[in-house]
Write a sequence for this structure.
């Protein structure tokens, strides 16, 4: 059961160039600058942080999740100078298509490193985020589903067949669920604000997967105002037993920090400390079930000081042996 020693932070300077246009848009480059600042505070005796640039994901891997027609439309829309793709939420600039390929590539770089260096904490700080993007639809600031592409890569490039994706962003990852709802080998587990009250309106507890994938989708919706205690209970009662039954070969974490009580993108009321709890428990699960193979990929988190603090707590938790 290896516990992590080294911290590998995967990012790319071009992520800062993804232009979401008007000033009120919450998904801004400053989010990654805040994370970068906090990264400095994580160093300490015996702790090594290495920084790796993400490589671009090749189109072959993107097409495991998205349709060719959608990719073409995305590229054409970006290059045409239009301000958004499909919906005004999905603001984009001339370079967004290329930058989105680099965002999808971060997870693949992380997975290659996780296979080489198992006892490492691996965090990918990317933008644009991904978990709302569907096969042929951009949604909620997301264009390419970074986490879903990474799951297929881990299966096909490294023959880790059973992948568990744990999504603790405040919103349901409709795109990840849609990609794998018929797949018995990818288990999607999501903790999020109840869809009756929250974007995107999916992720009811009754959604368990379909066909051969029935039973490998687990939605744990939380009422507005829910905080640390509700998450800790759901984790012990539902997530840990589900993973013990499923026996994953690798974990991918959709790490969104917008459930923080100061983040106005949800009605959830998590403290920064909750993210330390999540980091510790996820590290323990990865050590127990899959020799430490785990990669975390950034999703949401829009209140900058809370994002920084929550990221820092999460990484400290990932790095802290129980
Ligand atoms: Zn979110």
């Amino acid at each position: 059961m290896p516990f992590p020693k080294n911290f590998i932070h995967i990012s790319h300077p071009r992520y800062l160039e993804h232009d979401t246009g008007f000033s009120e848009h919450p998904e801004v480059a400053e989010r990654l600058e805040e994370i970068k600042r906090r990264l400095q505070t994580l160093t300490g005796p015996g702790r090594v942080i290495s920084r790796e640039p993400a490589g671009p994901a090749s189109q072959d891997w993107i097409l495991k999740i998205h349709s060719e027609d959608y990719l073409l439309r995305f590229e054409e829309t970006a290059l045409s100078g239009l301000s958004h793709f499909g919906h005004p939420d999905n603001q984009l600039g001339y370079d967004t298509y290329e930058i989105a390929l680099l965002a999808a590539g971060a997870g693949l770089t992380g997975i290659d490193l996780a296979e080489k260096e198992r006892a490492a904490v691996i965090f990918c700080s990317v933008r644009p985020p991904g978990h709302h993007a569907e096969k042929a639809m951009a949604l909620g600031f997301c264009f390419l589903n970074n986490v879903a592409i990474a799951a297929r890569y881990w299966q096909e490039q490294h023959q880790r067949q059973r992948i568990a994706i744990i999504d603790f962003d405040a919103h349901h990852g409709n795109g990840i669920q849609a990609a794998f709802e018929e797949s018995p080998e990818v288990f999607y587990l999501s903790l999020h604000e109840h869809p009756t009250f929250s974007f995107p309106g999916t992720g009811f507890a009754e959604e368990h997967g379909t066909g051969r994938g029935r039973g490998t989708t687990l939605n744990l919706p939380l009422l507005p105002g829910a905080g640390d205690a509700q998450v800790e209970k759901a984790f012990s009662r539902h997530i840990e037993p589900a993973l013990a039954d499923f026996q994953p070969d690798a974990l991918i974490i959709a790490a969104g920090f917008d459930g923080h009580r100061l983040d106005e993108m949800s009605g959830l009321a998590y403290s920064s400390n909750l993210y330390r709890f999540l980091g510790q428990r996820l590290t323990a699960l990865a050590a127990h079930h899959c020799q430490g193979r785990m990669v975390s990929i950034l999703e949401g988190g829009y209140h900058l000081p809370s994002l920084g603090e929550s990221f820092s707590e999460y990484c400290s938790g990932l790095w802290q042996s129980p």
Summary: The chain has a mean pLDDT of 95. The two ends are 12 Å apart (CA to CA).
